[in-house]
Amino acid sequence: DSALVWFRRDLRLHDHAALYHALKAARRVWCVFVFDTEILDPLPRADRRVEFIRDALVELDATLRATTAQPGGGLIVLHGRAVDVLPALADTLHVQAVYANHDYEPAAKARDAQVLGRLADLGIMLHTSKDQVVFEADEVLTAAGGSYSVFTPYKTAWLRKLDGYYLRAYPTERYADALAPRPPELQRPVPMLAELGFAPTNLHELQMPPGAQGAEALLDDFLDRIDRYEDSRNFPALKGPSYLSVHLRFGTASVRHLARLAWDRARAGSRGAEVWLSELVWRDFYHQVLHHHPRVVTHSFKPEYDAIRWEHGKHADKLFAAWCEGRTGYPLVDAAMAQLNQTGYMHNRLRMVTASFLCKDLGVDWRRGERYFALQLNDYDLAANNGGWQWAASTGCDAQPYFRIFNPVSQSQKFDAEGKFIRRYLPQLAKLPDAAIHAPWLARPVELAAAGVTLGQDYPEPIVSHEDARQRTLQRYAGVKSVS
Ligand code: FAD
């Protein structure tokens, strides 16, 4: 009996639920990854995530070659429509079953349902397991059996349910004997980016170590800092967070392993670890929101907010373009967008600030910002991104109340007081004094002159007045509230 393990967003060999179940059940196991043209075709031709995935596959392939007892081991990599090429491969290999881990995004669920049908027609089973989250959508429910739409009670219930059992690693290495050599015609190296139709990006210039080894290195580094996480996490110039999000996104890190480490540390009294564990709970929380309310992908969680009249037409396009390109005249917002555009990462505090700025200072529909982040973020995850945007736009479950509007200048003064982060991404403002860097239009002419900054030339004037925008936003939201 033989089996095929289909890797998707779980690009590691250790602590891998589907691989473990396949290795235990079958005597011969092959591993495959499909570069799915349905996902790749709409992407821009240079995409850091495609390169990140490719790097992870090269590592996965090397580890499989080294682990498979007979020569010819390694990863099978296909390029095509997954719904076509995956069942065809399973058929060619004459496996009895395909194993994969659950993917919760609506498009992935639809794809998996189609694959299940095609495999069934061939007499092949599809077994899927939980792997990507600690608790799936229906594992943490209210006493009445409903789903949670507020985070704090969800977190309380999540922590109450947590038990070492759920965080135990799947010991795949114990059963590695079942890994089978690939048939000769499938012993091909992982395709180059160009073969997939993609150009290289600046990924390798960024401090973003790839693959499971990269995740391990980041984790080692973070464990030295985790106790201070609560104090440092909000300051974008500091190395506060873990930077593990891209690894959680593509499964080069195991969420069980991370949660286990944090949980142990938290129980030993580390407040930083306790707060960090909560972030992993947010991750599960937004996954279950998406599962129970798939309409959030295109609609407000709170339906009355779908009636909001956002800015529209050319005016909105202009505002949106300035936001995307970091030309709003608000240094913290512009520096954050530069970080996103240059690296594919943005600090969490800045995701909140820039998202709030787009919706509440520029009055642009949150869905446009959500789509822009989706294209740019290395760690883009539909559930977390949608949840974060709806939180910032006050349209979501457990959202920030609409009348609490971030002030982009005071956020800057509070979280980047010395302007270190701003200077890193906006070198044209580097010479402004700390007090002036948060709102250059308020600087004295001598300060601007001494710093070599001419507003409107080296750096834009503010695109809107925050105070006026705030009033407009209050009216925009209040109007909706009164009709609903
Ligand atoms: P850490 O602070 O080290 O957090 C550890 C892990 O917890 C993260 O890697 C992530 O997996 C999870 N996490 C942390 N915060 C959240 C959160 N609020 N919601 C869900 N999971 C969380 N996160 C994504 O992974 N993908 C996204 O597409 C995404 N889009 C966002 C959009 C907006 C508007 C906002 C406000 C937040 C978004 N987040 C998203 C959440 C958060 O900003 C990132 O997870 C975090 O900045 C990643 O950096 P880190 O790994 O260093 O975080």
From TrEMBL:
Provide the top EC class. lyase
Cofactor section: FAD; (6R)-5,10-methylene-5,6,7,8-tetrahydrofolate
Q: Which InterPro entries match?
A: Crypto/Photolyase_FAD-like_sf, Crypto/Photolyase_N_sf, Cryptochr/Photolyase_FAD-bd, Cryptochrome/DNA_photolyase_1, DNA_photolyase_1_CS_C, DNA_photolyase_N, Rossmann-like_a/b/a_fold
UniProt keyword annotations, A-Z: Chromophore, FAD, Flavoprotein, Lyase
Q: What is its EC number?
A: 4.1.99.3
Q: Give the source's domain of life in one word.
A: Bacteria
GO MF assignments: deoxyribodipyrimidine photo-lyase activity; DNA binding; FAD binding
Which residue intervals define the domain Photolyase/cryptochrome alpha/beta in the entry?
1-134
Any one biological process term the GO annotation gives:
response to light stimulus
Which reaction(s) does the protein catalyse, per the Swiss-Prot or TrEMBL entry?
cyclobutadipyrimidine (in DNA) = 2 pyrimidine residues (in DNA)
Binding residue positions for FAD: Y229, W276, E279, L280, V281, W282, R283, D284, F285, Y286, D379, Y380, D381
Record-marked site positions (Electron transfer via tryptophanyl radical): W310, W366, W389
Q: Could you give the cofactor binding note from the entry?
A: Binds 1 FAD per subunit.
Please state which protein family the record places this protein in. Answer: Belongs to the DNA photolyase family.
Q: Name the chain's protein.
A: Deoxyribodipyrimidine photo-lyase
**Species annotation:** Caldimonas brevitalea
Ranked from the top, the taxonomy reads: Bacteria, Pseudomonadati, Pseudomonadota, Betaproteobacteria, Burkholderiales
Q: What gene does this protein come from?
A: phrB
